[in-house]
Amino acid sequence: MTVFTRSVALSGASNFRDLGGYAAQGGRLVRWRRLFRSDHLAALTAQDAQALAALGLARAVDLRGQLESAAQSYSLAAVHYHALPIEPTVVQRAKEMAQAGQQMTAPVARHLMEDTYRAFVSDNTPQFAALFAHLLEEDTPLVFHCTAGKDRTGFAAALILRTLGVPEDVVMQDYLLTNGLYRRPQAVQGSAPQEVLDVIWQVQAGFLQAAFDAVERDHGSLARYLTQQLRLDDAARERLAQLYLQPPAGA
């Protein structure tokens, strides 16, 4: 019996992990080695690239903003690259505050992060709908990522898992795994007070909850958001289950 590990050990990416193995709708498990989430892939070594090739990685969806992806571009052999840019609003807001002479504190940073997650729902639904469209095309192994693999990627992973029927508490546990895995860039150390950096470069349950609260407030329910905004009708959700869940026992 093959034993899979959730975190994939790579030298050039610390937050690359598998979404497989979680119990979903009907007790079926999310398939291993089909859906991956990660921080950016521009620092991968040749050995890392070989490891991903061994996983059969065939598709990469980049959620980074245009300047981010241009500054740290990458190309992986036999991997189809798709850009779905979501601009990093926290960084821009922080710069604007600094230019205006306003102090960044941990509570202010938390508020900015929660606003960012609400904006995923209000401003970036087309990108998440496009991600699901890619998922529906085929089930070749796919990784989706942003820069740190925690916010844009975190909400995307949560949407995918919730759509597949993974319970909310398990989805939150997966989201929070970032705090034990992600290695923040050394360059950011000292760029702000440590308590501010710990907010911006980690994840908190309240951030993800802010996004799902916005879904409920603006669209009435997650089911309605999936159907009306992400274009996931019953047939699409059934296809997702066929592609990314293990067959029912005895099937």
UniProtKB/TrEMBL annotation:
InterPro entries: Prot-tyrosine_phosphatase-like (IPR029021), Tyr/Ser_Pase_IphP-type (IPR026893), Tyr_Pase_AS (IPR016130), Tyr_Pase_dom (IPR000387). One of its GO terms (molecular function) is phosphoprotein phosphatase activity. Residues 126-195 form the Tyrosine specific protein phosphatases domain. Pfam families: Y_phosphatase3. It comes from the Bacteria. PANTHER family: TYROSINE SPECIFIC PROTEIN PHOSPHATASES DOMAIN-CONTAINING PROTEIN, TYROSINE-PROTEIN PHOSPHATASE. Belongs to the protein-tyrosine phosphatase family. This is Protein tyrosine phosphatase. It comes from Pulveribacter suum.
